[in-house]
Amino acid sequence: MFGKSKPVVLERYGRRRSPWLPPRWLVLLLIGIAAGAAGVLFVQERYLPPRLSASAGNDLQKAFAQADADRTRLKGELAETSRRLDAALADKKAADEALGASRAALDRQRVDLASAIDALPPDPRGGTVEVRAAQFSAKGGLLAYDVVLTRSRDTARPLTGVMQFNVAGESARGGEANATLKPVELSIGSHQVLRGSLALPEGFRPRQTTIQVLDRVGGRALGMRVMQVQAR
């Protein structure tokens, strides 16, 4: 009753003020953060692709791993294919070089053959086609022959015809006999070497062969020569 009195505070507008209010800048900052988050969520939901679920994410990861494995496998297959291609190209190069060497050797052989044929003695009878050399032998009922023919005229175009053998000898009964063998077709440029064998009549023993070169069977004679048959 007689203690010290406390001052009495009067509110100007008749009510008590709140003990604490947040600063305006903090309020604005919080509003900005909330607005930004809302904007991000809106853009993500409205314009961006939908977010993947956990299972979809696992599937995507597996698909990526499979694609990476396929890429690695294809890379290995490409390297193997490249290796095989390089090996094939190397083999082709070696084959081309071998073919070139074979062609060069064949050309040299042709030149050597032409030189050897030129060195043969001429056909005494002459003719459009000359029989420069021939060799015959009989064995086992066959007449084996090697004949070298040359042309004495323009050789720009091959000449076609047949080679006919008229063989004189002894028949199976022991008397003199003649046999005309199957004609051999030919096409001669500047020269031609013919090798082969023809069947003789049964028991026939040839002694000499007349070589006739004709333009066709039974046609015009282009060359002729008589040669002995070697006995075996």
Task: Please describe what this structure looks like.
With about 230 residues, this protein is an alpha+beta fold. It has a domain of about 100 residues: Immunoglobulin-like. The chain contains two helices and eight strands; from the N terminus they run ααββββββββ. Strands 1, 2, 3, 4, 5, 6, 7 and 8 form an eight-stranded mixed beta sheet that branches. A hairpin with a 2-residue loop joins strand 1 and strand 2. The radius of gyration is 55 Å and the shape is rod-shaped.
Sum up the structure in keywords.
232 residues; 31% strand; 38% helix; 8 strands
CATH-wise, what's the superfamily of the domain at 129-230?
A: Subtilisin-like superfamily
Question: Helical stretch count?
Answer: 2
Using the alpha-carbon principal axes, give the shape: rod-shaped
Instruction: Give the radius of gyration.
Output: 55 Å
**Element string (H = helix, E = strand):** HHEEEEEEEE
Percent of residues in beta strands: 25-35%
Task: Identify the CATH class of the domain at 129-230.
Answer: Mainly Beta
Helical content band: 25-40%
Q: Give the uncertain stretches in residue-range form.
A: none
Number of strands: 8
Question: Summed up, what is this model?
Answer:
By secondary structure, the protein is an alpha+beta fold.
Topology:
Layout: H1 24-46, H2 54-118, E1 129-139, E2 142-151, E3 159-170, E4 176-180, E5 184-188, E6 191-199, E7 205-214, E8 221-230
Parallel strand pairs: 1-8
Antiparallel strand pairs: 1-2, 2-6, 3-4, 3-5, 3-7, 7-8
